[in-house]
Structures are given as structure tokens and as C-alpha cells.
Amino acid sequence: MLAAILLGFLFAIFLVFAGKFFRGKLAVLSALVPGGLFAYFASFIPQISSGDIIHKTYQWVPAFGVDLSFKLDGLSLLFTLMITGIGFLVFAYTASYLKGHKYLDRFYGYLSLFMAAMLGLVLSDNLISLFVFWELTSISSFFLIGFNNTNPASRKSALTALGITGFGGFFLLAGALLLGSITGTYSISEMLSIKDTIAGSEYYILAVIFIFVAAFTKSAQFPFHFWLPGAMKAPTPVSTYLHSATMVKAGIYLLMRFTPVLGDSQFWNTTLIIVGGITMVYSAIHALFRTDLKGVLAYSTISALGILVFLIGLGTKSAFLAAAVFIIVHALYKATLFLVTGIIDHQTGTRDVTKLSGLRKIMMPVAIAGILAAISSAGIPPSVGFLGKELTYEASSHAETFTIIIVIAIVLTKILLLWAGFVAGIKPFVGKLPEAHKEVKAPDFLMWGPAIILAVLGIVFGIFPMLIESALVKPVVSSLGADASEYHLALWHGFNTVLLLSGITIAVGILLYFFLKPSVKLENRIGKLEFISPKSLTEKGTHYFSVFSAFWTNVFQNGYLRNYVTTIVLFLVVLVGYVMFGNPTVLIDYRQLSEVTAYELAVVIILIAGVFYTVFTKSRLAAVAAMGVVGLAICLIFVFYSAPDLAMTQFSIDTLTVILFVLVLYRLPKYLTLSDYKMRIRDGVLSVALGTVICLLALQVLAEPTNSEIGDFYAKNAYILAHGKNVVNVILVDFRGTDTLMEIAVLSISAIGVFGLLKLRLKSTDRSQ
Amino acid sequence: MKTLILKTASNYLLPLLLVFSVFILLRGHYLPGGGFVGGLIAAIAFVLHAFANGLDNTKGLLRFHPGFLMPVGLGLAFVSGLAPVIGLDDPFMTGLWFPEPFPVIGNVGSALFFDIGVYLVVIGVTLTIIFTISESA
Amino acid sequence: MEILLAIIIGVLYAAGIYMILRRSLVKLIIGIILLGNGANLLIFLLGRITEGAPPIIPEDSEVFLEAYADPVPQALILTAIVISFGLQSFAIILVKRAHKVVKTDDLDEMNATDEDS
């Protein structure tokens, strides 16, 4: 299973090297990767539908409880099949859609990176690895939205999408860590077995909020929805694959995955119903005001995601069943509509729905696919969409509270979605073909083939629901912790309220389609309200934030080393000084101090004199010599106080430092006094203050009892364990050998740095100077 | 700077100091000393020689660029830490020792080879820095 | 002696920071060296100083029989001294190079990261 996930990553890497073979005719071969994976995952269907769950664990960082552990259950299986199945069709479609594009290989690389990340996401059983894959999908989505990187609007949309989904990613990490600290594990399966602990924890609400924010940003729920319409700047295969069928459903997946763990509370259900409800109605209304086909589809996708969140929020068995069916329904018809839109855009060069009509005369197969998808989207029998809508109504009409409002909201949404589906799937193909499009060429098979396959599947599954019932739908419901064995999917359930609602929806929706045509006038009308939309509010917030950051950075990062050091020292002096001022008495136990002998006093005086001379002399050579004296005096202090190794090292280094200085002294800038008198006084006061604080700090520490446990351990075991008697050396080469290894590595790097700076020519600066 | 006395003296001092540095290196496990100090003393010996006889003579004496001592030393130190992992499946840096002490040197184990690695790296680093600087100064 | 050492450390810190705050490039390096020496002594002092008892096990014994100086700060300082040599030489060369390229020894004139300023 690990190999299946890695395959996508490996293929992406492979494309880096062998990319040029995939730019031309061989491009279509890359569809074999998702195709093969689809066959692989499809082979698990019998096993999963019989109730098995497949676990595979590869240790990654066992010390932190982070594993690459994968779980294949009904929910994961449905998503893997969507990812690889639609992936297969999109890969093939792309070969024709972007035929001859300069960076086609790169595009495939991103797509396959995304596919692998998405597979990892839905298969991960470990929250941390789930988070890693989650972020990888955000990143690959960023690359794909910004694929036309010469277009500023594309770049901006890509950044917005990355900003919003990355923001959610932080919350997912926070939620994962919080859940991990509540339960002591990152494994979702293990959390399932101790869900009472989580529900009883005081952090339950917080954890739920974190997971919600992550899911809502990814799945474009209100008020985070606005990145998705922007993401439509991506090439259409990307919109099809990431932004309608798979990636945006990652949030839905997360919610479904956590339903059995966190889902048993009023807070969980109410929030999801409200957020999902607002999203589905709000964006379904928005869809009415679009003239860009992809804009219509984007808003109807958000609305569909809202329906899914809403269904998860209802939390009943029939709601889960409806959600499972609706995921399949939506993936089939929405992907088809996107592919159809892509074909229209590719052939005619426009996506403006007011300018499109009569295209059936040119591209009949595409028209069939579009009309079938529109039927499924509208929920007209015998499509699978009808099944989904029936189940949704069934679940809504059994909601526990506010049943009337909920039913009205869902029926309204469905009516508007029917309109959106008809506009995207039927409108471009009916009526008269305008003059401008008389010369349009028919698309080739690679483009309409995938669309028609998905569209036909939408009808086939509707007529023969048993094809998906026990294989896909019921395992999903049981993954969500409910038992759905007594339900049966069927087109005909007899005369009841649900059928009545369906009838109303279809009738009103079709009427609406005939009376309300998408127009620029409508689009402008909604544009006037744009200034209070979450999108423009966020943009304004971001703008002011960056203005503030620039101001802040300019204040503190002003390019003057002195100012940085002054700030640091000032804070150090004030903060440490404040703490010590609260406890002003420095207690010194004079009995414990060692005595001062005459030669020690002499060394101290020499040292201090050397320091003063170094600071105040006007000659570089004198300063270096005085510094050498300071070093030797310190060396003597080491000798006095039982540190022979230090003394030897200090002596050698002191010698070498002086030699080094003498070698380069006359190549160095002169020893200038550049600051004026006032500045020197100011710096002097600051330095003396720091010196005093450090001095007092040292005395304060000396007054505290010491703990030499570590030193004692090393001393005790130096000979017994490490066969050495010089404990300092034993620590260096044995007990802490790895540190020393790193240290000599750092030393080597500094030597290479010196060598490089002197021997290698700087490029531009050297020549221009 | 190139006086005859210094020149003559440094010719004899160089081997003497090198032997001394090896002595400091080897006794480091029991008495003050070790790879760091030993390496520094050896480096100072070469620098002294370079002062007296000129850089080119010292370089001719060395026959190879001192920079090569760095990878050699790092490699030796790393291998001495890695040996227990490969040989005995012990954790990285486990000390391995010959059961009987050798004459003159004393106990010999992986830590000694590690220290020799440190010694070589310190010589390499110091000489690379000083030689590079004096060449371009 | 501890009080004297604490004063020395204070002097080294003060002198180091004062030199770092100067605008001359060479003074900056000297400041860094002084500050490093101060830090080494501070660690040494805080590990408590012991006279005449180096952390070396007597020849005829396997463990310490008497008091000994704490070896841990010594090991820390030993590596710090050697590393500081690497740091100093790199800093010196960097200053030399910067001086050659920018043709100034005033730190205040090196306040932009862009090449064209």
C-alpha cells in the first residue's frame, strides 16, 4: 500500500528527468499510473464490502508516536477510487487539452504529486502523517492553480488558495497535537476506542473547533469559501480533479473520519448544520449571478460541499447514507460538467454562457455528456442524482429540530443547483448556433471520452443502484459508525413526502431555468455587494497587515548592526535588572570563597589593564597585543583553578589568534574612531550597565547551591566505562563524542569558508568594483 | 624575520614539536592533553616553520594541501563511531576496547581513533586558515 | 577570588559590547573575541572553581578519592575556545573581503543587503 502511495511521488520525480518524452504523443501514457492504481484499489472492493479493514503500519518516528500507518476501510476506499478513477480520466483528458504545451510534463508532475498526496491523506491512520499529506495537497494545488504563472490573476488566486488552506492546515496540526495530548496517541483507530476520554475532556470543544476550521477551509465552507472561485484560474483539468472531485472533499473526508470519534455532541451537529446550511444556500444563490461557466460550477460546487457538511451534521443513519451517495453523485456529474466546460472553452475560446448556444451541432457526444450530467445534477430519474436527492430529502425531513427551515433550505438549494446544472450542461448545446462559432472544430476522443464515461456512469448507477450499494455506499456508512444494512437503494420508494418535494424541486427548477437567463446585468448587480463579502474583507485585512508588517520591519530591521545590538542589550539589562532589583540583596557566603593570593591579584590586574588598553588604544597593533595579554591572563586563571586542558588550549589558540591578526592586520581597515563623543558616552553607559548586570548575575548564581550530578556521573564512570582518567578528554571523545564530531565538522566548514572567501572570485561584485 | 638562528632552530624544532604533539595526543586519555591541544601544537609547529623558512618550503615539506586532513580526520572520527554499529549492532559511538593495554600507549579503543580524527581535523583547519590568509595577505 | 572573577567577567562583557557597538570593522571583531572570553570565564565560574584538583583520576586508582573540579564546564569551554578560533578567522576574512568590496570600514555604511547600494 505504501508503494501505491509512493508511486505518484516517484512518477513526479521520474517526470523531472524523463519529462520531455511526455510532452508529445506519449503524454496519454501517463494515465496508466492512476489507471493502474484504480485497478489495484478496486481489487479490494470484495474484501472491504464484506466488512474487513486493512491496516498497514510502517514505523517512521516511533519515539513521537508518528507512524506511516495506513488504513483502508469503506470511507478510504470510496475516496481512493474517486482519486484514481477520476485521475485516470483527467490524465487522459489533459493529454489532449494541453496538447503541445511547453510545460505539459511539469503539469503531469504536479498532478501526480497531488494524486499521491491525496491518496496518502485518505489512507493515513496517523494524524501527523495525515497532516503532512494534507499540506502536500495544498502545495500541489498552489502549483496547479498558478500553472499559468505569467498571469498575475493566476498567481494571486494561487496565493489566496494557499493562504486559506495553509491557514486551515495550521489548525489541523493544532487539533492533531491537542487530540494527541488528550489521548496519548496519534492513531485515529486508537482514538476511536477511547472516544469517551475525548468527549469528557475539557479541551473537547477546542479540538472540535480546530478540526472544523481545517475542514471548512479545505472544503470551502462559508466564510472561507472564496478561494475556490479564484482557484478556477487553473486549467480546467485541475478544476475538475482538485477543485470539484477530490481535494475540496478532503475537508468532508476529515469530518467523516472524525464523526465516530468526535461526532457525538450537540456542538458538533449544530455547528455543521448551520455552517453547511449557510454555505449551501449562500453559494447556490451566488451561482445565479455568474456568467462564466466555471464560476457557475464553482459556486454550485461550494453549495454541494455545503450540502455534504450539512448532511454530516444531521448525523443520522439516513443522512450518512445520503452523504455517501451524494459524494458519488457529485463526483460523477460535476466532473463531467467541468470536463464539458473545458471542452467548450478549448474549442470556442469562451466560457461566457451568454454567448454560447447550439453547440450540439458541432459536438454531439459532448452535448450528450452535458445533458446527462445536467439530468443527474437536477436529480431527475433515472439518474443516480435522483437517488442522492431522495436520500437527502429523506434525511432532512427527519431532522430533529427546525425541520421546516431545514427542509426549505435544502429544497431551495436543490432548485438553484438544478438551474446551475442546466445552465452548464444544457444551455450551451441548445438553441441556434451563433455565427461566431460556425467554424468551431469538433474535439477529439480523448476529450469527450472521459466526459461521456462519467456521464453514462451517472445514469447506470441510477438504474442499477446495486452496483454501488454494497460495494461502496454501505461500507462508507459503517466507517462512520452507523449500520445501514436494512436500507436499500432504489429509484422507486412509493408515494410519500419526499417524492412530493422532488416533484416540486424539478418543476420549480425547470421553470426558473426558462425564466431566468444568466446575464451580465445580474452579475453586475451582485458586484455592488462585493465590498462586504468575506473575500474583500480578508483582502483588506491582508493589505493592512502587510502595511503594518512593513512598518514594523523597517523600525526594527533598519540595517544598522549597532541598533540591533543596542536593542538586545537594552532589553537584557532592563529585564534581568528588573528581576534582580526585586531581590536586591546578593548574599555572598564569604567562608566558601577561595582566598586571593598575591600572584592571582597580579594576574587580575594585568587582565583588567589589558582589557582597558585594548579598548582605548589608538593603534591596531597595540590592541592586538593587549588582547593577546588578556588571553594569556585567562590562561593563567585556568591554570590556577585546576583546568590544565583549558590552559593548554587557550594558550595555543591565543598564539594562533595573534599570528592570524598580525598576518592580516595591514590588510584590514584602519582603527578609526568614527562615533562622536555623545554616542561613545551612551554606548559606554550601556556597556557598563550590562557588565554590572552580568557581574551581579554571576554572584547571585554563586550564592545558590550547585548541582554537579552530571559531572559526578562522568567522573565516576570515566575509568570504569571509558578506560580514561582525564575526565575532560573522556567527555569530549567518548561520553559526548557525537557533539565533538559535529564540532569538528563545524570547524572544517569555517576553514572551507575562509578558503572560499579568499581563493574564489566573487562574481558580480568583484568585477564591477 | 628570516634569521639564521630561527631558521636552523625551526628545522630541528619541527620534528620535535610534532613528536611532542603526538605525545600530547596519545596521553590525552590519562593526563592533560588530547586531540584538540595536540592538533593545535602540531599546527603551531608548522606555522613556526613557515615563518622561518617561508611558506613555500613548508608546503613543499607537507607535499599535500593541509585541507585534505579535514576529510581524512572527519572520516576517521566518523568511522570510529560507526564501527560498533556495523560490527556489533551497538548504538552509534559505543566505546570498543582491546582487552589488554598496549605497552607505552595504554588502553587502545575506538575513542583513541576518534581523538586521532580530531587531531587531524584541527591541524587541517588551522593550517588551511593560516596558509590561505598568509598566501593572499 | 570569586568576586574578582565576577568583576573580570563584567569588565570583559562591558568591553566586548562597547567594542561591538563601535562603527569600525576591526573593533567589531575584537569586541566579539572579548565577549567570547567573558562567556568562557562565566561558564567556568558558574561551574564553581576548585583550586589544585584537576579532574584527572589518580594513577593508582579507578575513581576519585578527593574533591575534584567539575569536568563538564571544562569540556564545554574547551570546545568553545576551539570553535571561537574558527569564528574569529572567518569573521576576520569576512571583514577583509567586505572592506575590499564595499570600500568602507564604517559599519553604518553597510546597512543594505542589496548589491547596488
Question: TL;DR of this structure?
Answer:
The complex is a heterotrimer of chains A (769), B (137) and C (117). By secondary structure, chain A is mainly α.
Report what the structure shows.
The complex is a heterotrimer of chains A (769), B (137) and C (117). With 769 residues, chain A is an all-alpha fold. Chain A is built from 33 helices and two strands. Chain A has helices at 2-18, 32-42, 45-49, 74-97, 104-123, 127-145, 152-183, 188-193, 195-200, 204-218, 227-231, 236-245, 249-262, 266-287, 293-314, 317-348, 364-378, 384-397, 403-425, 445-463, 466-479, 497-515, 520-527, 534-556, 561-581, 598-616, 620-640, 644-664, 677-703, 709-722, 727-735, 737-759, 764-768, and strands spanning 54-61, 66-72. In chain A, strands 1-2 form a two-stranded antiparallel sheet. In chain A, helix 1 packs antiparallel against helix 5 (104-123) and helix 10 packs antiparallel against helix 13. With 137 residues, chain B is an all-alpha fold. Chain B has one domain (4-136). The model of chain B has no long low-confidence stretch (mean pLDDT 83). With 117 residues, chain C is mainly alpha-helical. Chain C is elongated and about 60 Å long. The longest helix of chain C has 32 residues, at 71-102. Chain C has one domain: Helix Hairpins (Orthogonal Bundle). Chain C is built from three helices and no strands. Chain C has helices at 2-20, 25-46, 71-102. The interface between B and C is small, with 10 and 11 residues. Chain C: Pfam families: Oxidored_q2. Chain C: This is Cation:proton antiporter. Chain C: The chain crosses the membrane at residues 6-21, 28-49, 75-95. Chain C: It is found in: Cell membrane.
Features of the shown structure:
heterotrimer; A: 769 residues; mainly alpha; 4 domains; two-stranded antiparallel ribbon; 33 helices; 2 strands; 2% strand; elongated; B: 137 residues; 5 helices; 0% strand; cell membrane (chain B); membrane (chain B); MnhB (chain B); transmembrane helix (chain B)
Percentage of β-strand residues of chain C: under 5%
Largest sheet of chain A: 2 strands, antiparallel
Q: What number is the mean pLDDT of chain C?
A: 83
**Unreliable stretches covering 5 or more consecutive residues of chain A:** none
Taken together, the total number of domains of chain C comes to 1
Specify the helix fraction band of chain C. Answer: 55-70%
Spatial separation of the terminal alpha carbons of chain A: 59 Å
Q: Return the CATH topology of chain C.
A: Helix Hairpins
**What structural class results from the helix and strand content of chain C?**
mainly alpha
Oligomer: heterotrimer
Number of DSSP-assigned strands of chain A: 2
Family (chain B): Belongs to the CPA3 antiporters (TC 2.A.63) subunit B family.
Pfam families (chain B): MnhB
Membrane topology (chain B): Multi-pass membrane protein
Keywords (chain B): Cell membrane, Membrane, Transmembrane, Transmembrane helix
